[in-house]
Amino acid sequence: MENQPPPPTYVSMVDPFLVEALQNPRHRLTILRMELDVQNFLKNSDIHQFEFPHFPTSYLRLAAHRVAQHYGLQTMVQDNVVDGQGIRILVIKNPESKVPAVCLSDVPAKDSENDHLNQIKFVIRPRPKASSNDDNGLGLKRSPVRTVEERKEEYDRARARIFSSPNSSDSEDALAPFEVADSVHDVCSVI
């Protein structure tokens, strides 16, 4: 039986819901923003009530309650049907409100398979440089700058090589089986 390392200290000090939410890349940033808002609220002794911004899902509203409770704050819900803002979450300071021993930002993000791929380093080796007297097998020397005529000639030779029949190397003979129709009537009569 293998000895497993003990669970991290934050596991017993942070709500499991918040740990799971923080390990989800989709929600981590939002939870950490909530925590930052709560920390700024606690630092300001002049303000005794704070309102979270509107959260579109019940999951994020639950997370806002849990973040406030992690800091020992009291939460209240106000349903504002009149002004159309929906549900608002108010946070109120208590005498026992304080910054906890383990902040939510201390909870590490869960490693995903993509993170492991991002850690792998790929080395791209440069292609060996051809010497100046090498040619590409067609009798042409490749230069980095070619004229349009040189490119067209190379294209024509490649086309002739691709479409040539085994017993003929001339490009006109290779295209002989394909006759060009003179009109639409000729094309339709072939079909």
SSE run: HHHEHEEHHHH
Number of strands: 3
CATH superfamily of the largest domain: R3H-like domain
Low-confidence stretches: 173-177
Q: Using the alpha-carbon principal axes, give the shape.
A: elongated
Distance between the termini: 77 Å
Q: Give the count of helical stretches.
A: 8
If classified by CATH, what would the architecture of the largest domain be? Answer: 2-Layer Sandwich
Q: What is the CATH top level name of the largest domain? A: Alpha Beta
Side by side, the strands of the main sheet go: 1-3-2
Strand content: 5-15%
Give the CATH topology of the largest domain.
Ribosomal Protein S8, Chain: A, domain 1
Residue share in helices?
A: 40-55%
Radius of gyration: 36 Å
User: What about the largest sheet?
Assistant: 3 strands, antiparallel
Number of domains: 2
The helix-and-strand class reads mainly alpha
* Average of per-residue pLDDT values: 76
Keywords:
mainly alpha, Ribosomal Protein S8, Chain: A, domain 1, 2 domains, three-stranded antiparallel sheet, 3 strands, 9% strand
